[in-house]
Amino acid sequence: MSRKNLPPASLRLFEAKARHNLTFEEIGKKIDHDEVWVASLFYGQVTPSKSDVERIASVLQLSEDALKTEYMNSGFPHRGELIGHSPPLDPLLYRLNEALRIHGPGIRDVIHEKCGDGIVSSVDFRAHVEKVTRTDGDRVRIIFDGKFLNYKSF
Predict the structure, then answer these.
(1) 105 preceded by cis ω (within 30°)?
(2) Could you list the active site residues?
(3) Helix, strand or coil for residue 11?
(4) How far is 102 from 137, CA to CA, in rounded Å?
(5) Which of 36, 52, 83, 154 could form a disulfide with 127 if both were Cys (CB 3.0 to 4.6 A apart)?
(6) CA-CA distance, 108 to 131, in Å (whole number)?
(7) Average pLDDT, whole number, for the chain?
(8) What is the pTM of this model?
(9) Cβ(34)–Cβ(127) under 8 Å?
């Protein structure tokens, strides 16, 4: 993923992560967030709370005041803009997009059968990635956990 259009706070986070040789999982455990949320923070796609900034500044040995100022001045995230091209050009993102294009209609129908007419929120949302080691080759389990929101009549 290109990092050229990231906000200054994001670039500072990536530099500190590399300097300390930490993974998103290691950082997440230290600041009490899932590694997917941490990675999304690094890409400027989520908004950290004041305590999130304090904890990540401590873990990465960054200036808390500088990070707070950068986040306050950057405004709310422009979510989804980093992918840009549709379908995505990045091979991994392209395949995730392909999986959703192929299996999305079936997943949609199963969700409607189980939950009714509505959507799965990406606002009240969590994601988690697991590596599943198998003898026939490693696999990846991606868990999306979003609040179900019924459509309302008016």
Answers:
(1) no
(2) 95, 98, 121
(3) helix
(4) 23
(5) 36
(6) 25
(7) 89
(8) 0.80
(9) yes
Domain 91-150 sits in CATH 3.30.1160.10:
yes
For 33-90, what is the HEC assignment? CCHHHHHHHHCCCCCCCHHHHHHHHHHHCCCHHHHHHHHHHHCCCCCCCCCCCCCCCC
Domain coordinates of the chain in residue numbers?
8-74, 91-150
pLDDT at residue 102, rounded to an integer: 85
Q: Is 4 helix (H, G, I), strand (E, B) or coil?
A: coil
When pLDDT is averaged across residues 107-116 and rounded to a whole number, the result is 92
What is the token pair recorded at 122?
Answer: 């990406």
pLDDT digits (tens, 9 = 90+) for 87-103: 888 899 999 999 999 88
Give me the pLDDT at residue 112, please.
93
Written as six digits, the tokens of 16 are: 């500190």
CATH architecture of the domain with range 8-74: Orthogonal Bundle (1.10)
Give the Cα separation of 88 and 33 in Å (integer).
27
